[in-house]
UniProtKB/TrEMBL annotation:
This is BTB domain-containing protein. InterPro entries: BACK_BPM_SPOP (IPR056423), BPM1-6 (IPR045005), BTB/POZ_dom (IPR000210), MATH/TRAF_dom (IPR002083), SKP1/BTB/POZ_sf (IPR011333), TRAF-like (IPR008974). Belongs to the Tdpoz family. Gene3D superfamilies: 1.25.40.420, Apoptosis, Tumor Necrosis Factor Receptor Associated Protein 2, Chain A (2.60.210.10), Potassium Channel Kv1.1, Chain A (3.30.710.10). It comes from Urochloa decumbens. The lineage of its organism: Eukaryota, Viridiplantae, Streptophyta, Embryophyta, Tracheophyta.
Length: 323
């Protein structure tokens, strides 16, 4: 994995503790094994953790150190900087052991990278002889704002969503979304100060998740049964696009990429095309380039869905398959 860009945090409020994860799905392992030379690898799309852009790079090596134990989980601490933006995890697993393992399915596998940033690099070093300052409490404004949302104290706007009423605060919404700012304060504002704003074509739970992000600027916690979470993330992506919340939109794209399989790829691709999510769309098309994946998608009716909802995507898919 590597730190992309100039290595500078997105702002002075960079968290002293931040964490996140990313999934890199590698399709066509047999093709990569035969056609990729040592030293060249498969690079993931950039993802954000702690205000930094990261990428994962997978290398296929034919030579490894002797006595390498087969492992699928490794944890190491490294210090990243502009002078050393990239670290390598060497001798991860023997090739033969990997090819016999359960982790290689349908000629594809997934690498999960969990990143935890423990300190801001600029504050981790102290001048020699200078006394260490008292520990500053962690930032808790997100907790306070979420508590404000939950309690409804000081709320001055009410939304009606699918039969439910949800209270919120105009200034918070307007500060976070240009669309909501226009609806609440601009020429297209809806209702009066005491009126109720109706939100059409959205489930109440999705709107609540949207508000959670607006107030906390963090990934919403989705508590759904297995097999349903990808659907909620699709709805949340549509909501993020509707209210011009670009950060949430990228978060939804990353989550949906992690839920991608032969059952879900068709609907995810349709959503990506509808909302112009180019990165997610490319990930879906790359997934479908695998003949095994494509056969399973066609068997489950996913190909018919693409034909009906986004026929233009099929042309791109055919071009990739022929290429």
């Amino acid at each position: 994995m590597s730190l992309a860009g100039d290595g500078i945090s997105s702002g002075p409020a960079a968290a002293a503790m931040a964490s996140g994860c990313h999934l890199l799905t590698v399709n066509g392992y047999s093709r990569i094994k035969e056609g990729t030379r040592n030293g060249r690898g498969v690079l993931s799309r950039p993802f954000i953790v702690g205000g930094y852009r990261w990428r994962i790079k997978f290398y296929r090596l034919t030579k490894v150190e002797k006595h390498v134990s087969s492992r699928v989980l490794a944890r190491e601490s490294r210090e990243f900087s502009s002078d050393h933006p990239c670290w390598t995890l060497k001798a991860f697993i023997r090739r033969k052991a990997f090819e016999k393992s359960k982790h290689l399915k349908g000629d594809s596998f997934t690498i999960r990278c969990d990143i935890t940033i423990t300190k801001n690099g600029n504050t981790a070093r102290h001048t020699a002889g200078a006394p260490a300052s008292a520990a500053v409490p962690t930032l808790d404004i997100q907790h306070h704002l979420l508590s404000l949302l939950r309690s409804g104290k000081g709320s001055d706007v009410t939304f009606e969503v699918n039969g439910e009423t949800i209270a919120a605060h105009r200034c918070v919404l307007a500060a976070r979304s240009s669309v909501l700012a226009a609806e609440l304060f601009g020429p297209m504002k809806e209702g009066t100060t005491s009126g109720v704003i109706s939100v059409a074509e959205m489930e109440a739970r999705v709107f609540r998740l949207l508000l959670d992000f607006i107030y906390s600027d963090s990934v919403p916690v989705i508590e759904e049964e297995a097999g349903e979470q990808d659907v909620i993330w699709q709805h949340l992506l549509a909501a993020a696009d509707r209210y011009d919340l670009q950060r949430l939109r990228l978060m939804c794209e990353e989550k949906l990429a992690g839920y991608m399989n032969t059952r879900t790829v068709a609907t995810i691709l349709a959503v990506a095309e509808q909302h112009s999510c180019q990165g997610l769309k490319e990930a879906c098309l790359d997934f479908l380039r695998s003949p095994q994946n494509m056969q399973q998608v066609m068997a489950t009716g996913g190909f018919d869905l693409l034909t009906k909802t986004c026929p233009s995507v099929l042309k791109e898919l055919i071009t990739k398959l022929l290429g």
